[in-house]
Design goal:
140 residues; mainly alpha; 434 Repressor (Amino-terminal Domain); 7 helices; rod-shaped
């Protein structure tokens, strides 16, 4: 297995470690969660965030990018760390039961709409009969 490493020039390291810490916190993840999700040992991540390491594993940068972190804001001192614009990223630590509830709510809304459509079709058929329309010929 080949390990890719980003080598960041020393002059940038004064702020990079702070920005990487902010990025992790922006995602709402702990160092242990990062370890579990992308395989970087917790003590190495700790060294990176404390500015003790000059090497940032490629896997970590890819992970941050996939999670929606704008990597330009990490490497540019003019910006604070932020998410990429127009990305719809669900943080990894999102509560699954919350997502299940949202899904159930949407499914209930769809079922209600199907019921309303059925009622409207029935009313339309009644109106057609009252007005002498042939329901088969009048169907679109």
């Amino acid at each position: 297995m080949q390990i890719k490493i980003w080598i960041i020039p020393i002059f940038n390291m004064d702020k990079i470690h702070i920005k990487l810490l902010k990025a992790r916190k922006l995602l709402g993840l702990t160092q242990i969660q990062i370890k579990d999700l992308c395989g970087i040992e917790q003590h190495k991540l700790s060294d990176i965030e404390r500015g003790k390491s000059k090497f940032i594993p490629n896997e970590y940068m890819e992970f941050l990018h996939i999670q929606g972190i704008d990597l330009n804001t990490i490497f540019n001192d003019s910006f604070d760390v932020s998410m990429r614009d127009n990305d719809r990223v669900i943080p990894i630590n999102t509560n699954v039961s919350h997502l299940n509830k949202l899904l159930a709510d949407k499914e209930n809304k769809i079922a209600d709409l199907h019921e309303q459509i059925g009622e409207l079709k029935y009313r339309l058929s009644v109106l057609r009969k009252q007005n002498g329309y042939n329901s088969e010929a009048a169907e679109p």
